[in-house]
Amino acid sequence: MVRENAAKNKNMKVTIGTFTLAEHDFTSTPAGHQATTLKSTAVSDFRINREVAGQIAEFVRAAQVKTFDRKNRKTSISFSVAREHTTIRNCEAWILEHSTKLPNSGLVTLQAKSDSGASSERYLQDAVLVVAESHYEGASSFHTYQIIGGDILTEKPKTT
After folding, report:
1. Which residue has the higher pLDDT, 54 or 23?
2. Handedness of CA 30, 48, 142, 119 (dihedral sign)
3. Chain center to CA of 14
4. What gap in Å lies between CA 97 and CA 122, rounded to an integer?
5. If residue 21 lies in a helix (H) or strand (E), which one and from where to where?
6. Does the pLDDT at position 11 exceed 80?
7. Hey, is 97 helix, strand or coil?
8. Helix ranges, 2-87 (H)
9. Helices (H), the chain
10. CA distance readout (Å), 35 to 90, 103, 108, 110
11. Average pLDDT of 68-81?
């Protein structure tokens, strides 16, 4: 049962700038897309990988190595989205349109809701969309995204 819910997560919303990559409430069309071409969407395989740059120093005759935290943080987020379209033609047109409208970088906003209704928002400032892959089968399109940036923030950064 848990696997089934995880495979069709409709409680996740991911945006980069004003562009919607994944939408948790699909009663409206995501920003940047034509209306009436989509029936539903679902996020799957959502992963967050956080890396910290560290340095290892091996001193002569030391009993053990010394490690240093170099403070460089890197967060990589990847996920897939399945979308059901109203027709195969709409699906084909949507994929072509989608690939030309994707932003390269911006503020990534991650929104999720728990079963109790509590919501959580996190931010990745100056993030870069490094992978955007799409394919389709019938009237369904499948998209995989990978985004990299610094630390995940709990407060929305101020724009300058």
Report:
1. 54
2. negative
3. 5
4. 28
5. strand 19-22
6. no
7. helix
8. 2-7
9. 2-7, 88-101
10. 11, 20, 23, 23
11. 93
Q: Which of 86, 63, 78, 64 lies closest to 110 in space, CA to CA? A: 78
pLDDT of residue 4: 39
74 HSE (CA, 13 A, CB side): 10
CATH, range 2-149: 2.40.30
Evaluate if residue 7 carries a pLDDT over 50: no
Residues in the chain: 160
Helix (H) or strand (E) holding 12: strand 12-16
The three-point CA angle 107-113-116 to 5° equals 155
Number of H helices, E strands in the chain: 2, 7
Q: How, if at all, do strands 140-149 and 19-22 pair?
A: unpaired
Nearest to 72 by CA among 154, 153, 150, 155: 150
Q: What is the pLDDT of residues 87-146, one digit of tens each?
A: 999 999 989 999 899 999 999 999 988 888 888 999 999 999 999 999 999 999 999 999
pTM for the model: 0.79
Domain ranges of the chain: 2-149
